[in-house]
Design a protein that fits this description.
Elements lengths: L2 H31 L2 H25 L2 H9 L2 H26 L1
Helix pairs in contact: 1-2, 1-4
Length: 100
């Protein structure tokens, strides 16, 4: 297995956990206050959650994708992993701000 595949799996898994936490905070806030921007954040979290669950499916279960990922150029592996990693950094910052 590729170290980049393992890193992408880890980033996607942490993203899912962060989105569950953020989504629960935003859902609670929307139920209490009904603010439209909170609803927007909740919808944002829901779409990103679906995206990351789909990535986890591809990274963990889908044999054709895993085969392609491990056989492709290292630059592609790094690029795809960095996309998950950058999303992780953004969600970590958003989580810090939300839970502060």
């Amino acid at each position: 297995m590729s170290v980049w595949l393992d890193a992408a799996r880890a980033a996607a898994a942490v993203n899912v956990l962060l989105l569950v936490g953020l989504g629960s905070v935003w859902l609670r806030g929307y139920r209490q206050h009904g603010a439209q921007h909170t609803l927007g954040l909740l919808v944002f979290a829901a779409f990103l959650f679906v995206e990351n669950v789909l990535w986890l499916y591809f990274y963990l279960v889908h044999p054709a994708f895993i085969g392609w990922f491990t056989e492709t150029a290292v630059e592609v592996q790094v690029g795809m992993t960095l996309l998950c990693g950058l999303e992780l950094v953004a969600l970590a910052f958003l989580s810090y701000i939300t839970w502060r």
